[in-house]
Design brief:
The protein is of the alpha+beta class. The chain is built from nine helices and 42 strands.
Length: about 700
């Protein structure tokens, strides 16, 4: 008996231990599903469809609270970041605030190489592209007006590409290249052996045309161009005045594209035509401005298009890359393209035909009262989904932070023209724009979950105002040039609308004359360059800004292209303390079921720390940079301007599951990837949109602690 009992004890313990181990492993497997040894994020937006989705689930609802910093890479530069990095074969490729390009070990954050073109970047640079063929592996990246092809292993330019490793986007536009301002702020799209690009252009005249161009990825040779301002004989030419293609500009793709590799279609959203707010020199619908264009990626041939704003007078361009989705209709899968807008709409089209999946209604709007202007009689609006940003502002929607602030807002509100969307600007009275010029949706783009058919889009939800004024300062003088070219952003009184449009008051105390010259010539941040100004014109503008002297130039001196009316400047409707003068939410994150057009959920996104400390939480704030969604049940997003938070939400409910504070605001779209069986989430944090905070350039990656990794 003793022997038998003695034998049973070890057997029972062994069995117990085995069962316990199985239970522990099962729980561990549930919380930390196995991931591939390597899972790349090789394309801006995750893949060519731009859906911002990852099948990784090691980080999930159950364990996301345990995320910790895996590594951090500080570029050592100021200026802010909007870059979403790409990750290929365990290497992360990113961009610094001054547009140096670098490669990191994606598991450790250790620097592998850095490329400095010698050109200091002053524009946003939101991403890179990757192409490979056997042993030939290349990084395609914009540095201002240049596109470089770099060896992915070394960071050195590929000498046989273009001119010693780069092409100049100012070339081939039919105008003097030295006088053009073009910057590649969003990455090229790759299709087979082609890179397809757009570019950021000035929004005042003169501006180059927004041609969509495809280059051979090996040689840099131009393979095709699509004229968004049609030439004679091309489709859409009759929607412009005769010869408009020779003098007008814009209608450009500044925000990026999406590619259906299987069908060989590239989907291209475009911006407004220049000048943005007065179009007497471009009467007509102005195809292909403000359009979603489906092009044959091999040839550039137009397959179909949809114009969302006819004869745009409000700068209501498509602000984000489209998202290629698959939705359910009558029990069948329909491969579609979703496009978000600044107004807060989602348009949904069948990919090959352009047929709308939700009806589009054409509504009539009032005519312009400004001399020479003819506004479009009607504009298209989708019947569903319901707009994700508020459309009409009423008195009961004005800020209620205090009785005094509400009264202030009420008095100002009653001075505005306020008749809803698509009301043409007038002379001498501000017109309310709601949502504002920065959306609704912005350049971060939307994320799509193929498991559920839900689209996630973040939005701004504050009001702006604007008006027109007669361009009486068209005489060739410093003030005349300033009013014609600069007041659109910096206002007549040079006070700007910080932080997007900084004040120029006291600029001579902050910058040297050489620095001011460089900014005007090359641009900075949202500001394009003005290479078309002659030296004496530039000198006169600088003299006016720094001393107030209005230096006149000889009447024979050709003035920059100017319109009869100018825009008086972008004005945010903010209360005296700098907060939005409307009730919250001021920024939102939205989950929209594209199968039905119904909302799964909607929540405020972001806070003002100082208001939150006083108990005013969940206000939402302005936000820039998009979301990603994962098979782990999570939506990751930073984006918010003021609280510097990086957050993870339950993708089914919108419940906040995790948040961390970044060194700077993360005004970029994150990426997620796996290296050596470990999932990482990385975000670029640079700030720059909060005038009370410093800017920088830090990439920070998060992962689960080693103690709970599978």
């Amino acid at each position: 008996m003793y022997y038998a009992f003695a034998v049973q004890i070890p057997i029972s313990r062994a069995l117990y231990t085995l069962l316990a181990c199985v239970a522990m492993l099962s729980a561990k497997w549930e919380d930390n599903p196995a991931v591939p040894e390597t899972q790349d994020w090789p394309v801006y937006g995750g893949r060519s469809e731009n859906i911002h989705y990852s099948p990784l689930a090691q980080i999930n609802r159950k364990n996301v609270k345990q995320l910790e910093v895996a590594w951090s890479f500080d570029t050592g530069e100021r200026g802010g970041l909007q870059t979403s990095p790409i990750i290929v074969d365990g290497i992360l490729y990113g961009i610094t605030p001054t547009q140096k390009v670098f490669a990191l070990d994606a598991a450790t954050g250790n620097l592998l190489w850095k490329f400095d073109s010698g050109t200091k970047g002053t524009q946003p640079d939101r991403g890179l592209a990757y192409w490979s063929s056997k042993q030939d592996k290349r990084i395609l990246v914009g540095v201002m007006n240049f596109v470089y092809a770099l060896d992915a292993a070394t960071g050195k330019p590929i000498p046989v590409f273009g001119n010693n490793g780069r092409i100049d986007l100012r070339d081939g536009l039919g105008r003097n290249p030295e006088l053009q301002s073009v910057a590649l702020t969003s990455p090229a799209s790759v299709y087979k052996d082609l890179i397809i690009v757009g570019g950021r252009l000035p929004e005042t005249l003169p501006a180059p045309p927004g041609d969509i161009r495809a280059y051979d990825v090996r040689s840099g040779q131009l393979r095709w161009s699509f004229h968004t301002i049609p030439h004679p004989g091309e489709f859409g030419y009759d929607t412009w005045p005769k010869d408009a293609w020779k003098y007008t500009g814009g209608a450009n793709n500044w925000t990026g594209m999406a590619v259906d590799v299987k069908r060989g279609i590239v989907y291209v959203p475009t911006g407004s035509a220049a000048f943005d707010f007065y179009g007497a020199d471009r009467l007509g619908d102005n195809l292909f401005a403000d359009s979603l264009i489906a092009l044959n990626a091999e040839t550039g041939e137009r397959l179909w298009h949809f114009q969302a704003v006819k004869h745009d007078l409000w700068d209501r361009d498509f602000p984000s890359p489209p998202t290629l989705v698959t939705v359910k209709r009558d029990g069948k899968d329909v491969e579609s393209v979703a496009q978000t807008t600044k107004q807060g709409f989602v348009y949904l089209f069948e990919r090959t035909t352009g047929k709308p999946l939700f009806p589009i209604e054409y509504r009539k709007y009032p005519p312009s009262t400004v001399q020479g202007e003819i506004a479009a009689a009607e504009q298209p609006l989708p019947s569903a989904p319901t707009a994700f940003a508020r459309q009409d502002l009423t008195e009961n929607m004005l800020t209620s932070r205090s009785l005094e602030v509400h009264q202030w807002a009420l008095e100002h509100f009653r001075k505005f023209r306020n008749q809803g969307q698509f009301v043409p600007f007038s002379v001498g009275q501000d017109t309310l724009v709601f949502p504002g010029f920065d959306g609704g949706a912005e350049w971060g783009g939307s994320a799509f979950d193929p498991e559920t058919g839900i689209l996630y889009v973040n939005a701004n939800d504050i009001a702006w105002t604007g008006a027109l004024a007669e361009n009486t300062g068209a005489e060739p003088s410093g003030r005349g040039f300033y009013l014609g070219q600069c007041s659109v952003c910096h206002r007549d009184n040079i006070a700007g609308s910080p932080p997007e449009f900084p004040s120029l008051i006291g600029v001579a105390d902050r910058l040297s004359r050489a620095e001011i010259t460089a900014v005007i010539r090359r641009g900075k941040g949202r500001m394009p360059g003005f290479p078309s100004l002659a030296e004496d014109q530039l000198s006169a503008v600088i003299e006016y800004l720094t001393t107030g002297e209005n230096k006149e130039l000889p009447a024979s001196q050709p003035a920059p292209q100017q319109m009869k009316y100018r825009f008086t400047g972008y004005h945010k409707f903010l209360d005296p303390e700098g907060y939005p003068a409307v009730v919250p939410p001021w920024g939102t994150l939205n989950a929209i079921n594209l199968n039905t057009g119904e909302y799964a959920w909607k929540i405020p996104l972001g806070e003002y720390p100082e208001l939150a400390a006083k108990g005013m939480t969940k206000t939402g704030t302005e936000n820039y940079g998009g979301a990603i969604v994962t098979a782990g049940g999570l939506v990751f997003i930073a984006a918010t301007n003021f609280d510097k938070k990086f957050r993870a939400f339950d993708k089914s409910s919108g419940e906040l599951l995790w948040e961390t504070t970044l060194p700077f605001a993360g005004n970029a779209t994150p990426a997620t990837y796996a290296v050596k069986g470990l999932q990482f989430v990385v975000i670029a944090a640079g700030g720059g949109k909060d005038p009370k905070s410093l800017s920088g350039g830090v990439y920070r990656a998060f992962a689960l602690p080693k103690r709970i990794q599978p």
